[in-house]
Design goal:
- The protein has 442 residues and is of the alpha/beta class.
- It folds into 2 domains: 175 residues, Aspartate Aminotransferase, domain 1, CATH 3.90.1150.10; 260 residues, 3-Layer(aba) Sandwich (Aspartate Aminotransferase, domain 2).
- Strands 4-10-9-8-7-5-6 form a 7-stranded mixed sheet, sandwiched between helices.
- α3 packs antiparallel against α10, α7 packs parallel to α8 and α11 packs parallel to α13.
- The structure holds 4'-deoxy-4'-aminopyridoxal-5'-phosphate.
- The site of 4'-deoxy-4'-aminopyridoxal-5'-phosphate has 16 residues, from α5.
Length: 442
């Protein structure tokens, strides 16, 4: 069967709103380490990892063995009505790692459900459905999580069970806080929070939910310390802080294990997903016992924390620790960041290189402006694929390339991918700049 046949069948049977990457969509048929093989017969270095999910890489023996040991018992699923040894062990480990005192952990199958569970706990604890969220955020595809998603492309419904007020993101290219230095941005963001609380809420807000680095939003982030400064204001009225660590968790940012740790604060609730299962569906929320236990009725996830996914999760945590992947993310991320920043200086289509560790983004603009250039972004994205590198796209205007490679990325692989990226940027830049100059003189 050709890829075209599969595309036609996909289009005929799947809803129209599911996006697929590339002008010629790719079917991935095999993988090993940081490389995948396409049905097109080509091998690709993977800097996106199935949206930051294949966090350790493909076909990792330690994780495969742990899952196979569980499969060999004959038990794939029991439901949480029975004790699940891997689930308890993983919860103990995550509770200890979370930094939250006396924490409780609830497992789900997706980041969306994890955020739903966090909202359920926070709104019950505070007896309020008023929420503070951040512009340009993404928290999931259910009604409540769409309601706290500040990103037009992903807001498929205006129906919202919550009452939401919006804070400014840390966007440095556009918006009211753009181009402020970190200290001025911190002051402005705190002032904004006070004003929003005073003018758009009844005061008894349940929580603020924020991504330490906005994933779908194109890796936009505010200055270090921002969540901590916000939390000081929230504490005046007992408002909870939820850190959505679906993309930033597990050492990906290199400098810390959790994104929130750059902010001098410990959240009341923290949500996780993606990388912890290294491809198995595993997500959840960890939070203060009094907040988690505020849910006043039975709440249950049939598949959440099942024996197979939690076996994978325990193996992932072992692997992270045994190979100090956080340090590797810092090292290889720095190599990539330095290379990309150098390339950016030579190519005015690059508006900003940002992110931390192995969570790096390049934003494309029309040279000399902050006007988004999604066409140039798509051209660089396709050129990367042609060069043998998979990356992601994102940002409010579709003008951001996102890189979230497996944390096992080697320095050689980082250099290899960087060279492909820089070539792709250079080729698109060479085509773009004369066109702009001609336009300006016509
Ligand atoms: N929160 C964040 C920060 C995410 O990036 C995502 C997924 N991109 C989600 C929540 C939702 O996760 P899921 O797709 O697993 O429901």
């Amino acid at each position: 069967m050709t890829a075209d046949d599969l595309l036609a069948r996909h289009r005929a049977v799947m809803p129209s709103w599911m996006p697929i990457y590339y002008a010629e969509p790719l079917e991935i048929v095999a993988g090993s380490g940081r490389r995948v093989t396409g049905a097109d017969g080509r091998s690709y270095l993977d800097f996106f990892g199935g949206v930051l999910t294949n966090m350790i890489g493909y076909d990792i023996p330690e994780i495969r063995d742990a899952v196979q040991r569980q499969l060999a018992t004959g038990i794939v699923h029991t439901s949480t009505l029975y004790l699940i040894r891997h689930q308890v062990e993983l919860a103990e480990r995550i509770a200890a790692l979370s930094g939250i005192a006396d924490a409780r952990v609830f497992f789900t199958n997706s980041g969306t459900e994890a955020n739903e569970a966090a909202l359920l706990a926070a709104t019950n604890y505070r007896r309020s459905h008023q929420i503070l969220a951040v512009r340009n955020s993404y928290h999931g595809r259910s009604y409540a999580t769409m309601g706290i998603t500040g990103h037009r492309s992903w807001s498929a419904s205006g129906l919202n069970p919550l009452q939401v007020a919006w804070l400014h993101s840390g966007d440095r290219l556009r918006g009211l806080l753009a181009r402020l230095g970190p200290d001025a941005q911190l002051d402005a963001a705190v002032e904004d929070l006070r004003e929003v609380l005073a003018t758009q809420t009844a005061g008894d807000v349940a929580c603020l939910i924020a991504e330490p680095i906005q994933g779908v939003g194109g890796f936009v982030h505010g200055p270090d310390g921002l969540l901590g400064e916000w939390k000081k204001v929230l504490d005046e009225s007992g408002i909870l802080l939820i850190s959505d660590e679906v993309q930033t968790g597990w050492g990906r940012t290199g400098e810390h294990f959790w994104g929130y740790q750059a902010h001098g604060v410990v959240p009341d609730l923290l949500t996780f997903a993606k990388g912890i299962g290294n491809g198995f569906a595993l997500a959840g929320v960890v939070g203060r016992a009094d907040v988690m236990d505020a849910v006043p009725a039975i709440s249950f996830s049939t598949f959440g924390g099942n024996p197979v996914s939690t076996a994978a999760g325990v193996a992932v945590l072992d692997y992270l620790r045994d190979h100090d992947l956080q340090a590797n993310a810092a090292r290889t991320g720095e190599l990539l960041r330095t290379g990309l920043t150098g390339a950016a200086a030579a190519h005015p289509i690059v508006g900003e290189v940002r992110g931390k560790g192995l969570m790096l983004a390049v934003e494309f603009v029309r040279p000399g402006t902050s006007e988004p250039d999604p066409a140039a972004t798509t051209a660089v994205f396709e050129a990367c694929r042609a060069g043998g590198l998979l990356v992601g796209k994102g940002g409010l205007y579709g003008n951001v390339l996102r890189m979230g490679p497996p944390l096992t990325l080697t320095e050689d692989e980082a250099r290899e991918g960087l060279a492909i990226l820089v070539d792709a940027i250079a080729s698109v830049s060479a085509a773009a700049v004369p066109a702009i100059v001609e336009g300006a003189t016509a």
